[in-house]
Design brief:
Strand order of the largest sheet: 15-22-21-18-19
Structural class: mainly beta
Radius of gyration: 45 Å
Helix content: under 10%
CATH class of the largest domain: Mainly Beta
Number of domains: 5
Distance between the termini: 96 Å
Number of strands: 42
Largest sheet: 5 strands, mixed
Shape: flat
Strand content: over 45%
CATH architecture of the largest domain: Sandwich
């Protein structure tokens, strides 16, 4: 290292590295730091007279000791936000352009952003960017909590002003309920504020909302009738201006717009006969002489003279795995507006599984996921939510015929040995179960193992001799496939 070590000993405390530095870049050998007793590395490593050679020409990282330092970049932010750089502060060197990302929390705003060197000199910041100086540097972002104003009005009149509200608080109106004076046509009642009161997110003006005293008090004589009978409307209203006229609109479950059933009339009693069974929404209309409308709403259930009947059908009772079965939805009676669904159970299921969810579509397709025997529950539901069911059987088979693939572990053994029969089958209708028969001395087959769905069966002979064994695999249609084997058993 160039220079007089005696002079350096009194002055040199820090050696900084710049961009491009790595630990292999040194030009001196052992003793290069001899005499620089005040030298301190960036992580606090102090001079050691026993460590003065090239091994100390490294950036002092805290994990690796060295006498070199790097200018630090420290990020500070007050409550209410964050300040970060686009990258790692450890990768910033003097002369680099640093881009800052400043984020204020909801309800806060950035009030100042400063960058200062270690000697408190300010560094110029433009559009959240600055050039890293050859000095330890600190970035400080200061955030200020915002205050908001909420104004409460009745028309153009300001009723109340709430200032210095913070983000997320709920404003409250603390004076008498607003009043709107009656006019020649209506009196008014206060019903709330517009917009609807929510937590503070900014300056807001709330305006009082009033309802004119024109109320529709019309009623119907029944909410449930038999198809072909009328429902009677007794029309009336309170308030409003002058004489009222009345009308009736309806919507069936499938309608998206209102249908006019009874045109505006001065009659205050009139009838409506629904055209079909189902659930209806009724809108009772009252209109005053200023053509201002007031509405009353109710519902009407219309049912057939007979109970709900399920007439759903299935296109097939036996299909190949991968095929779909088509269910045709059909029903009669009840309250109309029918919806259809399909549930199923296999022999392994204890609960119903959904095959097709409730729908107003009348053609439903169901594709079984596996071969086997299925029970289908066909459901029809009317407008009142009443269900009617039909149950049908569906067999699903593989493309191949049933084959028995059962095997036995050995055809020779001793009395008391365990012979393992591996249960397997393919094709047919799936959902296999297995059993084993043996021939007795008279040549008749005797059942030795009850039907099982286990994958293994243990056969243990207790007498010497030759056993003729019939292995049986059965599918969901009760069809059997056989395999035959002989086992020779000796006494010892």
């Amino acid at each position: 290292m160039d220079g007089d070590a005696d002079t350096a000993e009194s002055s040199l405390t820090t050696i900084y590295v710049g961009r491009g530095w790595n630990d292999s870049l040194y030009y001196y050998d052992d003793g290069m730091f001899q005499g620089y007793t005040k030298l301190v590395g960036g992580a606090g490593t102090t001079y050691d007279e026993n460590c003065t050679g090239k091994e100390m020409a490294k950036l002092d990282s805290g994990e690796t000791a060295g006498y070199f330092s790097k200018h630090s970049l420290t990020m500070e932010a007050t409550e209410g936000g964050s300040a970060e750089i686009n990258g790692n502060p450890e990768d910033v060197f003097p002369g680099d352009t640093v881009t800052l990302t400043i984020n204020a929390d909801p309800g806060y705003t950035l009030s100042s952003l400063t960058v200062k060197e270690a000697n408190d000199l300010s560094v110029t910041v433009t559009d959240h960017q600055f050039v890293m100086p050859a000095s330890d540097t600190t970035v400080t972002a200061v955030f200020t909590e915002q205050k908001y104003t909420v104004i409460w009005k009745n028309g153009d009149e300001v009723l109340e002003t709430d200032e210095n509200l913070t983000y997320g608080t709920t404003p409250t109106y603390d004076h008498d309920e607003p009043v709107k004076e009656p006019d020649d046509q209506y009196t008014y009642s206060f019903i709330g504020w517009s917009p609807e009161i929510t937590n503070v997110t900014g300056d807001t003006v709330y305006t009082a909302v009033f309802k004119a005293s024109f109320d529709n008090t019309s009623v119907i004589d029944a909410n449930e009738i038999v198809l072909g009978n009328p429902v009677v409307v007794t029309a009336s209203a309170e308030g409003g201006q002058g004489e009222c006229r009345y009308a009736l609109d309806y919507k069936a479950a499938s309608d998206t717009t209102w249908n006019r059933a009874v045109d505006l009339t001065a009659e205050d009693v009139f009838a409506f006969t629904p055209p079909a069974v189902g659930k209806y929404s009724l809108r009772l209309v009252a209109q005053d002489s200023n053509k201002v409308n007031a509405y009353a709403y109710t519902t009407l259930m219309v049912h057939d003279t007979v109970d709900l009947t399920n007439s759903m059908t299935v296109s097939a009772s036996d299909i190949t795995l991968g095929e779909a079965v088509t269910i045709t939805g059909a029903a009669s009676g009840g309250y109309g507006d029918y919806r259809f669904a399909v549930d199923y159970k296999t022999t392994a299921d204890t609960n119903w599984q959904s095959g097709v969810a409730l729908t107003r579509e009348s053609t439903l397709n169901f594709t079984p996921a596996a071969a086997g025997a299925y029970t289908l529950r066909l459901t029809v539901r009317d407008a009142k939510g009443k269900n009617a069911y039909r149950y049908v059987k569906l067999m699903v088979h593989y493309t191949d015929e049933l084959t028995n693939n059962m095997t036995i572990s050995s055809t020779k053994g001793k009395v008391g040995d365990e012979f393992t029969i591996t249960c397997a089958a393919a094709g047919g209708y799936g959902d296999y179960r297995y059993t084993v028969d043996c021939k007795d001395a008279e040549g008749a087959w005797q059942r030795t193992v009850d039907w099982t769905t286990d994958s293994e069966i243990i056969f243990t002979p207790y007498e010497a001799g030759t056993y003729h064994i019939r292995l049986i695999a059965q599918d969901a249609s009760k069809k059997n496939a056989y395999a035959y084997v002989s086992v020779k058993v000796t006494a010892d």
